[in-house]
C-alpha cells in the first residue's frame, strides 16, 4: 500500500455553506497526522493549471464560520476531457501529491470516479451541496443552512402575503431534487409544495386553492422546486391566474441567497466530522468512496452509487404537509 505523505483538497461545483469548515478539518487532521497538505484553487480547473497552495494550521484560521469556499470553486469543462485530466495528473505528480479529498456534489464525484479509475489515483469525496441529493449520507454539507435560509425568507414573505391578502409562489433551488422545497415547505407552513420527485397535478393545486378561498384563507405560500415537472414558479403562477383569478399573485425566486451566509451549527459539525474522517480514511488506504453519515454513523459509499442511486425522498412528508395546511 502506498504510504501517503502529501495530500490535496479542493472544492468543486456549486459552493455550499460548511465547505470551509470541511477544508479546515481536513487541513488540521492532515497536519496532526504529519501529512503535507495543499489547497487546490478553483476546483478541478486549478488541478489542471497547477494552482496549488501549501496550507498550514493558520491558513484555515477563522474560516469555520464563513459561507462560500476559501479555495474557490468552478465547474471545469476541461476536466471532462481526457487531455484535461492528463494535465491534472501531471500537476499532481509534479507536486508529489499522493491523494486527494474532493468536496462537492454529483458533478464532482463523476469527475472523481473517472480520474480515480483512469490514473489509479487515491480519492475520497465529501458531500458538499445544498441539494441533499446524494445517496450514502442522510444530509449533505450545506443543506441545513440552505433550508434555514429559505425558512427565514418564507417567514418574511408570509408577513407581507398576509398584509396584502396575496398568494406567493416561492421558487427554491435544488436543480433536479426537491429536498430543499420539501423541508422548507413543511417548516414554513406552505399551502403546497411542488417537487420534481412527484408529478405536479395543477388541477389539484387549483382545487385546493379554491377550497382555501371558500374557507376564507386569504393569503398563502406555495413552494415550487426549480426542477418541478410543471415548470418554475412563474409558469405555475400564470396557470393559476388563467384559471382562478381570486388571488392577487406574486412570485419570488429566492436564488443564490439560499447558498450564502454562515453555516448552521449542524452543517459545521457535519463538515468537521466528515473532514476528519476523510483524511483518516485515506490513511487507512480507502479510495473511490464518498464519506457520509447515515443514522449517525460514518458510511463509505462508492462514487458511482452516491451519484446514481440518489437520496430517496420521504414522500410521506408531503402528505403530512398537505394535511397540516388544511
Ligand atoms: O447544485 C447546487 C445548486 O445551487 C443547485 O441547487 C442549482 O440548481 C445550481 O447549483 C445553480 O448553479 P449556478 O450557481 O451555477 O447557477
Mean pLDDT: 97
CATH C-level class of the largest domain: Alpha Beta
**Which fold does the CATH topology of the largest domain refer to?**
Rossmann fold
Q: Beta fraction of the residues? A: 15-25%
Named CATH architecture of the largest domain: 3-Layer(aba) Sandwich
Outline the low-pLDDT stretches.
Answer: none
Number of helical runs? 11
Kindly, what is the distance between the CA atoms of the first and last residues, rounded to a whole number of angstroms?
Answer: 60 Å
Element-level helix/strand string:
EHEHEHEHEHEHEHEHEHEEHH
- The assigned structural class equals alpha/beta
Round the Cα radius of gyration to an integer and report it.
22 Å
Q: What does the overall shape look like?
A: elongated
Strand order of the largest sheet: 3-2-1-4-5-10-11
Give me the oligomer status.
single chain
Provide a concise account of the structure shown:
Helix content is 42%, strand content 18%. It has 326 residues and is an alpha/beta fold. The longest helix has 22 residues, at 143-164.
Task: Describe the fold and architecture.
Helix content is 42%, strand content 18%. The chain folds into two domains: 6-142 and 263-309, Rossmann fold, CATH 3.40.50; 145-259, Phosphofructokinase domain (Rossmann fold). The relative contact order is 0.17. The protein starts with 5 loop residues before the first strand and ends with a helix. With 326 residues, it is α/β, with parallel strands linked by helices. The strands form two sheets. Strands 3-2-1-4-5-10-11 form a seven-stranded mixed beta sheet, sandwiched between helices. α5 (143-164) packs across α6 (179-187) and α6 (179-187) runs parallel beside α11. The protein has helices at residues 19-32, 43-49, 82-94, 106-119, 143-164, 179-187, 202-214, 233-243, 265-283, 303-308, 316-324; strands spanning 6-11, 36-40, 52-54, 99-104, 123-127, 166-172, 192-194, 220-225, 248-253, 289-294, 297-302. The structure holds 6-O-phosphono-beta-D-fructofuranose (F6P). 6-O-phosphono-beta-D-fructofuranose (F6P) binds next to loops.
Amino acid at each position: 500500500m502506498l504510504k501517503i505523505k502529501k495530500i490535496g483538497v479542493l472544492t468543486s461545483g456549486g459552493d455550499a455553506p460548511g465547505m470551509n469548515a470541511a477544508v479546515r478539518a481536513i487541513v488540521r487532521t492532515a497536519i496532526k497526522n504529519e501529512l503535507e497538505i495543499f489547497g487546490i484553487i478553483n476546483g478541478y480547473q486549478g488541478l489542471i493549471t497547477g494552482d496549488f497552495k501549501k496550507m498550514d494550521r493558520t491558513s484555515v484560521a477563522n474560516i469555520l464560520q464563513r459561507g462560500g469556499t476559501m479555495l474557490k470553486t468552478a465547474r471545469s469543462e476541461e476536466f471532462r476531457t481526457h487531455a484535461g485530466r492528463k494535465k491534472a495528473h501531471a500537476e499532481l505528480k509534479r507536486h508529489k501529491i499522493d491523494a486527494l479529498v474532493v468536496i462537492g456534489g454529483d458533478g464532482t464525484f463523476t469527475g472523481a470516479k473517472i480520474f480515480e479509475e483512469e490514473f489509479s489515483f487515491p480519492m475520497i469525496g465529501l458531500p458538499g451541496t445544498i441539494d441533499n441529493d446524494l445517496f450514502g449520507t442522510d444530509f449533505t454539507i450545506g443543506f441545513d443552512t440552505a433550508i434555514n435560509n429559505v425558512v427565514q425568507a418564507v417567514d418574511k414573505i408570509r408577513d407581507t402575503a398576509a398584509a396584502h391578502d396575496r398568494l406567493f409562489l416561492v421558487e427554491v433551488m435544488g436543480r433536479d431534487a426537491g429536498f430543499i422545497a420539501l423541508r422548507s415547505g413543511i417548516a414554513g407552513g406552505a399551502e403546497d409544495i411542488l417537487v420534481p420527485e412527484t408529478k405536479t397535478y395543477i388541477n389539484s393545486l387549483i382545487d385546493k386553492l379554491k377550497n382555501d378561498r371558500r374557507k376564507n384563507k386569504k393569503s398563502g405560500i406555495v413552494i415550487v422546486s426549480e426542477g418541478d415537472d410543471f415548470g418554475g414558479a412563474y409558469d405555475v403562477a400564470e396557470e393559476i391566474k388563467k384559471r382562478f383569478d381570486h388571488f392577487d399573485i406574486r412570485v419570488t425566486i429566492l436564488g443564490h441567497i439560499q447558498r450564502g451566509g454562515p453555516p448552521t451549527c449542524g452543517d459545521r459539525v457535519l463538515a468537521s466530522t466528515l473532514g476528519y474522517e476523510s483524511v483518516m480514511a485515506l490513511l487507512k488506504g480507502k479510495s473511490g468512496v464518498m464519506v457520509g453519515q447515515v443514522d449517525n454513523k460514518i458510511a463509505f459509499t462508492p462514487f458511482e452509487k452516491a451519484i446514481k442511486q440518489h437520496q430517496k425522498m420521504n414522500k410521506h412528508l408531503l402528505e403530512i404537509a398537505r394535511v397540516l395546511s388544511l
